[in-house]
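Researcher: Good morning. I'm working through a list of sequences from a screen, and I'd like to move beyond sequence-only analysis. For each chain I'm collecting a predicted structure so we can compare shapes side by side. This is the next one on the list. No need for commentary yet; just the structure.
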Amino acid sequence: MATDYYAVLGVRRDATQDEIKKAYRRLARELHPDVNPDPQTQDRFKEIGLAYEVLSDPQKRQVYDLGGDPRGGAAAGAGAGGFGPGFAFSDMLDAFFGSGGQRGPRSRVQRGQDALIRVEISLQDAAFGTQRDIQVDTAVVCPTCNGDGAAPGTQPVTCDMCRGRGEVSQVTRSFLGQVMTSRPCPQCQGYGTIVPTPCVECAGDGRVRTRRTLTVKIPPGVDNGTQIKLAGEGEVGPGAGPAGNLYIEIVEEPHDIFQRRGDDLHCTVTMPMTAAALGTNIPLQTLDGQVELDIRPGSQSGQSITMRGRGIQHLRGSARGDLVVHIEVQTPKNLDAEQESVLRKLAQLRGEERPQGTFAPGQQGLFSRLKDAINNR
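Model: Good morning. Structure tokens for this chain:
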């Protein structure tokens, strides 16, 4: 056989019936779907059930020990100890542990679902916070029936099939003898009551959809993906059940100048070679207004200037990130005769007419650096 049922139950091949039963009960309590609803655990739960079905029956166990298929054909369920017609394996579990679900009629009142709305904001709003009025389409309590689902002047009545219990019982035969199991009533779906005349406006659900306006306060420091929870502002549940939560997810719009990295802002300023060499002041429009950016003489491409406290405010604090300005020096092109003459004179004065240049190794990729690090060990 492909499956070792003894290993599944964790018993020896010469285990007694009592040992097999104890092993099965221990595993069933541990893996029962009401205790552990994980899908993989449920597959394991079915597996131990099949193993117990075979090993608890002496005839099936003998066939299994001889290498046959104890569950193949009609003989698998017809001998002494076999399952009676219409008997499900879950019925045997209910006999051992009970159905595991809620006993008696279930309530029509249920909690509503959570809702999610995405709101786009500018970088300025993300930095300093803002307020937004948003339109929300959610379920609210039906104003006609006040949530009970019945048309005005009527009310739910007791189900005549289950007599208000919400479940019906059935007796089946198994190798354990007669087993009584309970199932949700198919007529009332387990509620114990029936709404003979549903409310026309909500079709018996107890709620209707409507649009309403909410004012949302967005704190400073939010970023892409930040969620703001509004408790109880989601959908009302069936039967006028408590409302779920509403989550506002922030979507930050790209900025024309600044790129955000955490709470820091980055931008690039491009300037002529002469300005970088001589130094200058450049007006820069920040989130706080215009400031003068001081470019020191001799500034090089790739250098950066950090302006402290000009970035985004921390979400959980009053401090702010920085604004980092990256410098890019632009080499002039298409010089006229006079400009070329001036530059040649400058090169002559600085002894740079025939520069030798300074060379450095090319920048390696990640895998090349890893390879070199391993070879140098």
